[in-house]
Amino acid sequence: MTQRELQESESARALEILSFTINLEHAGDIIVRSLLGTIKKKTQNSEGFSKEGFKELMEAYKHVGETIHFASKVFMGKEISDAHDLLHRKETFRNLELESIENHLSRLANRDPGAIATTAYHADILQDLKRINSLFISCAYPLLEDAGRLHPSRLKKM
Asked: Looking at the domain assignment, is residue 155 inside a domain?
């Protein structure tokens, strides 16, 4: 890319490619440095999730996998409607996360042995999945920003 001067649109796309690549690397780092470590500790301690807790984590994992595929589509296709839908996946994950945390706290209150033994693992895995999900969703921002579809800030005006 540095062999010649780039046009503005080429520079913008180069920046998007670089950003997407960096986010891929960050997602890989989260998997290798955090998520796999959490799973390894849990496995070494032979602690099992409650049936419900495991199901919730698998739903979150599935959501993130779908987000990754959808983000690739948005990155390559550059469709505004797809970028908008991708951004909504962040809220959907947040709802999954909150529901899972509420359910987990309920299991703790009911003294579910699987929930008691795996509280830290459950929270850590959800947090890692949330971070990975957000990294891939971020590829929607440049497209939505260029289309004038983003607010300058998520903060409400007072």
From this structure: no
